[in-house]
Amino acid sequence: MNEKYEKVSSEIERIGIVPVIKLKKTENAGKLADALWEGGVPVAEVTFRAEGADMTIKAMKERRPEMLVGAGTVLSVDQVRQAVEAGAQFIVSPGINRAVVEYCMDNGIPVFPGCLTPTEIETAIGYGLKTIKFFPAEQFGGMETIKAYSAPYSQVKFMPTGGISLKNLSEYISSSAVAACGGSFMVKGDMLDGEKWAQVTEKCRQAVDIIEKSRR
C-alpha cells in the first residue's frame, strides 16, 4: 500500500474513534469541526447519506485544515471523485465495492471497505488492505465475531461500526484486532440538528477517556 494509506490508517488507529456524521445543516460544518477538535477527536467520516456531504467535508477542512476528514457510505466512483474534490482524505464504504476499491487504489486514495464474511475479508486482503470496516458490527455478533475472524486473519485490523456506544466502546477498543471504532453516538442527529456543540465535545471527551483507559 502507498504511504498515504499507511499514514491515514496509523492516524485513525492512534485516535481510536471515528465519528460517523450525517449533517443536514451544512452551514454548521465549521462549528461541528471545532466541537470534535475540542473534544480530542480530530477525525470525521462524513456520510454521503446526507445531501451536501461534499460541502460539509469542504467546510470542515477549511475550518480545521489539520483535521482528518473522510467520506462515508460511498457507493460509486462518482461519489469518490466528488468527495476527494471536496478535500476528503479517505473513503469508507458499507460493503466491498470492487469499482470503488480499485479506483481508490489506482489513484492512491486510502479506502476502508465494509466486510462481514470470510470471503469479503479475503477479497480485501487480496487488494492489500490492512484495515477493514466491520459493518454492522453489533448486528453480526460484535466482538465475538471479530475474535473469531482475527484468528485466521491476523494480518488485518477491524474498524467496527454499527451499534457502538460509550457502553461497549471499551470492549471493542481494548482488543488488539480493533484499529478504531466508528460511531455516531457523539454526533447523533438530535445533537447536530439542535446545534448542541458542547454536548458533542463532551461525548468526544468521554470516548477519548475510555480509549485511553482501555489501551493502557
**Strand order across the biggest sheet?**
3-2-1-8
Based on CA atoms alone, the radius of gyration comes out at 16 Å
Taken from the alpha-carbon principal axes, the silhouette is globular
CATH superfamily: Aldolase class I
**CATH top level label:** Alpha Beta
What is the mean predicted local confidence, pLDDT?
97
Share of helix, binned: 40-55%
Largest sheet data: 4 strands, parallel
Number of strands: 8
Structural class: alpha/beta
From N to C, what is the helix and strand string? HEHEHEHEHEHEHEHEHH
Total helical elements: 10
Beta-strand residue percentage: 5-15%
Unreliable stretches, pLDDT < 50, 5 or more residues? none
CATH architecture: Alpha-Beta Barrel
Q: End-to-end distance, in Å? A: 29 Å
* Domain unit count: 1
CATH topology: TIM Barrel
Can you walk through the features of this model?
By secondary structure, the protein is an alpha/beta fold. The chain contains ten helices and eight strands. It has one domain (3-214): TIM Barrel (Alpha-Beta Barrel), CATH 3.20.20. The strands form three sheets. It has a four-stranded parallel beta sheet with strand order 3-2-1-8, sandwiched between helices. Strands 4-5 form a two-stranded parallel ribbon. The protein has a two-stranded parallel sheet with strand order 6-7. Helix 3 (53-63) links the parallel strand 2 (43-47) and strand 3. The radius of gyration is 16 Å and the shape is globular.
